[in-house]
Amino acid sequence: MNGLMMPSQLTLTAVMRHAQANFPGSEIVSFTADNPTHRYTYADAFARSAQLANALQALGARPGDRVGTLAWNDYRHFELYYGTSCSGLVCHTINPRLFPEQIAYIVGHAEDRWLFIDPMFVPLLEALAPKLSSVEGFVVLTDRAHMPDSTLPNLVCYEELLESQPTGFDWPSLDENTAAALCYTSGTTGNPKGVLYSHRAMVLHTYGVLMPDVFALKGSEAVLPVVPMFHVNAWSIPYAVPAVGAKLVFPGPKMACGETLSRLIREEGVTIAAGVPTVWLALLKYLRETDSTLPSLNRVVVGGSACPWSIMEEFEQQHGVYTHHAWGMTEMSPLGTYNPRVPEDLPGDQAKALRLKQGPAAFGVEMRIVDEQGQPQPHDGIAFGALQVRGPWICERYYRAAESALTDDGWFDTGDVATIDPRGYLGITDRTKDVIKSGGEWISSIELENCAMALDEVAEAAVIGISHEKWAERPLLVIVPAPGAEPDPQKVLAAFEGNVAKWWIPDDCVVAEELPHTATGKISKKDLREQFANYRWPEEQPA
Ligand code: AMP
């Protein structure tokens, strides 16, 4: 027997309508290249999304067409999110930091009909244009005064495209399973793979993000997504914030600029900000150097890579800001787990251990760990296993792939190795491809990196496995010194004593000027392993 409730569809159009009806005056503030601080309301934003939908219809857009974006976080990108998805098109966000050949591959694979681009990406696209055969036109996200000279064919100015269009649109009644957005994984091996998000997944994910032990967003807050809108929908912040009517503050191209972030936070009264560890390192450095603080900010969300303790400690002790550690991935929209506030009475060392974990699963995500035979492992906080997940906002099949992306029994293998403790807290130890196996036992590179990052002289740290005659593999630590520091490798290694099992301590420490990073800002272990392909352990080096 079916229930007898209204069959209302879970769509982003419903999010937009809710925000329009209830919070038309809520503000969206953006830092942009052509107008340093642009300010308007939700009512203005959705009126312009309607103009965009009208313009796309006039261009001949058909339901399901992909519209590509190469853009930073600002109000025009926000208008694109809603103007495309809510009119039945697919908002395909593209990471401009990918290798140009990968961008060409992605645009071709997605068959994007139009690309909406920030002016600074015009030269990149000019070089790629001959390879972008599906693209009918390029729309530059700026006004007439700032239009660049360009050889790109069918170049259109965004403001001119919108100008003459009506501010109302007859938004279609979409089935909730309609595709809303598309994002390709950065894929360190093989071609990038497209994750095609449905409206239903985005709406359920929005509820998940808003839960009290997750982002816990209130309408009275101001939210700064420092996580790019070109990567996994900026962790769905552009959907979750309008659902509650909070103020949105966008940093434009200044994602890693401590000065801009700190000014926006102070001037706009930002209460919560979200981003990867690298952006917080930049912000904390700026605050340290200018002896400033951020009175309005009460929490930051850190994910994308393991959050070092030094970030949590400095935020809390110097600025009274609580750091929440979260884990997720492109294929999960991205939310998987979120570490809530630890109980106040938890002793310091236990609180630290708990906060360094990635937290319990958000409602909507089921997790398990399995061994090499696919057998589920206990959730005792000790057993390691391949982390598998399932739920309504997790990818079932990649875009245009013939086969399901799931295991035979219906789970998605995340490619991460983890522990899960009896309270359900996830502890990511490695990517499957990066695990270090010494004498048949796993060593967690993330735990070792956290240990190194706790030292003042270390700005960045990475641990990779290097083949070893006796143990098959042993960990090698590579560090980048903090500005002005000259760390002694032996002293760095000595600092591990007592913090990790003795046999986990890296066999050597190498000081490097920089570490290779991926297009999403993570340390690229693959490139690092290539750099150290000829490395020999001290005892193996010729005398
Ligand atoms: P992406 O799909 O590019 O967002 O990358 C997802 C991957 O980033 C995950 O599978 C993890 O390997 C890694 N990751 C994300 N968040 C964390 C975290 N909090 N701690 C450790 N690794 C993380």
Describe the structure in your own words.
This protein is of the alpha/beta class. The chain folds into two domains: 12-418, ANL, N-terminal domain (Rossmann fold, 3-Layer(aba) Sandwich); 434-540, ANL, C-terminal domain (GMP Synthetase, Chain A, domain 3), CATH 3.30.300.30. The chain is built from 16 helices and 24 strands. The strands form five sheets. The protein has an eight-stranded mixed sheet, with helices on both faces. Strand 20 and strand 21 (441-443) form a beta hairpin. Helix 2 (42-58) crosses helix 3. Adenosine monophosphate is lined by residues 185-186, 232, 303-306, 325-327, 329-330, 334, 358, 414-416, 428, 431, 520.
List keywords for this structure.
543 residues, alpha/beta, binds adenosine monophosphate, eight-stranded mixed β-sheet, seven-stranded mixed β-sheet, GMP Synthetase, Chain A, domain 3, 28% helix, Rossmann fold, 16 helices
What is this structure's SSE topology?
Blueprint: H1 12-22, E1 27-30, E2 38-41, H2 42-58, E3 66-70, H3 75-85, E4 90-93, H4 100-110, E5 114-117, H5 122-128, E6 137-140, E7 155-157, H6 158-163, E8 179-184, E9 194-198, H7 199-210, E10 222-225, H8 232-235, H9 237-244, E11 247-250, H10 258-268, E12 272-275, H11 277-290, E13 299-302, H12 309-319, E14 322-328, E15 335-338, H13 348-356, E16 366-370, E17 385-390, E18 412-420, E19 426-431, E20 436-438, E21 441-443, H14 445-453, E22 458-468, E23 472-481, H15 489-494, E24 508-511, H16 525-531
Parallel strand pairs: 1-11, 3-4, 3-5, 4-8, 5-6, 6-7, 10-11, 10-12, 12-13, 13-14, 23-24
Antiparallel strand pairs: 1-2, 8-9, 14-15, 16-17, 17-18, 18-19, 20-21, 22-23
Helix pairs in contact: 1-9, 2-3, 7-9, 10-11
The protein binds adenosine monophosphate.
